[in-house]
Amino acid sequence: MKTIKDFDLFNKRVIIRVDFNVPIKDRVIIDDNRIIMSLETICYAIDKGAKVILLSHLGRVKTEEDKKENDLKIVVPRLSELLGIDVKFSSNTRGKELEKMVSKLSSGEVLLIQNTRYEDLNGKLESDNDSHLGAYWASLGDIFINDAFGTAHRAHASNVGIASNLPSGIGLLMEKEINVLNSVKDKPKRPYAVILGGAKVNDKIGVINSLVKKADYILIGGGMCYTFLYALGYNIGSSLLDNNSIDYCKRLLDKYKDKIILPVDNIVSSKIEDKDTSLVSINSIPSNKMGLDIGPKTIELFEEVLSKCNMVVWNGTLGYSEVREYETGTKSILEYLSKSKCDTVICGGDTAAAAINFGYRDKFTHISTGGGASLELLEGKILPAIEAIEK
Length: 391
Description:
Blueprint: E1 13-17, E2 24-25, E3 28-29, H1 33-47, E4 51-55, H2 64-69, H3 76-83, E5 88-90, H4 96-103, E6 110-113, H5 131-139, E7 143-146, H6 157-163, E8 168-170, H7 172-186, E9 192-196, H8 205-214, E10 217-220, H9 225-231, H10 246-255, E11 260-261, E12 265-269, E13 278-281, E14 290-294, H11 296-306, E15 311-315, H12 328-339, E16 343-347, H13 349-357, E17 366-368, H14 371-379, H15 384-390
Parallel strand pairs: 1-4, 1-7, 4-6, 5-6, 7-8, 9-10, 9-15, 10-11, 15-16, 16-17
Antiparallel strand pairs: 2-3, 12-13, 12-14
Helix pairs in contact: 1-3, 5-6, 7-14, 8-14, 9-10, 11-12
């Protein structure tokens, strides 16, 4: 598969699909990791004299209010600061004004186009990979480079659509993501453990089915662990329960009981906002309480299992780690793995955000920028955005 390094970029209009879907609170970017991770590819294109055109989505756009909340212009000051140049911005996703801005670009300049999902407001043209929209965006450039791994498992007009109409390759971030995750999928270092957290079991049935056959251990925490505990007959109080997955959990536990490691204690409270917490064993959860983090004995149990391993893949936090009272489990296992000699791959989403926010950005083998995409690749699925470039 071609990468950006296989093209002559000088004086060419190079469209780069990046992932600037950054978390925003009160109109402030609270985590710029995805912007930082895009810099290597953008800087490479600038250094080679390309006229750089950037496309990205931000959030979901279903109403006019969503457009205001997800205006991609918020990224421009930070991106300009990181690149050391004034990044130009088009407030339009198509039209004569955008085309004029593109025509005036000089080598080494960068233009960021407004949120691609603005095109979803009238018919989901972006998310449904409208062929005319993909062809239009492709008409703005000479070469297309996809560096947005986080959307590689989706066929959108801004990835598959453009790739179908232009000479295409992948960026340096995308290349690293694919190489690392394919290595994990095809040649894991053993013993090999997978840590799974997050909310619903149903969201991860595909990846569980794939990884439980390959991994030596599956450590389960987060909200999803309570469906497994319920399947074993425990009273889980008001903890999160995925009713549609109870029978699935029973079958999985019957078949892989020696591989699956579940919590033995947890931190509970009457609701997330309630700071009055208590530590209980998993067979003593009060009926009016919900589990919101793993407890110290579970941390010790997980660390004991992980001490045997040479590779760990982790997706999903082990508790409601956005709240200080329920961050200990996730933070403790991050701390343990950061000092371990085993290869650790963090698979995007909330887990990546927690690793970075807790100060472990550079402590692991790889922190993926894509949660869903990384899991689907590990599952063995073909990712549409990558397939489009391979073709």
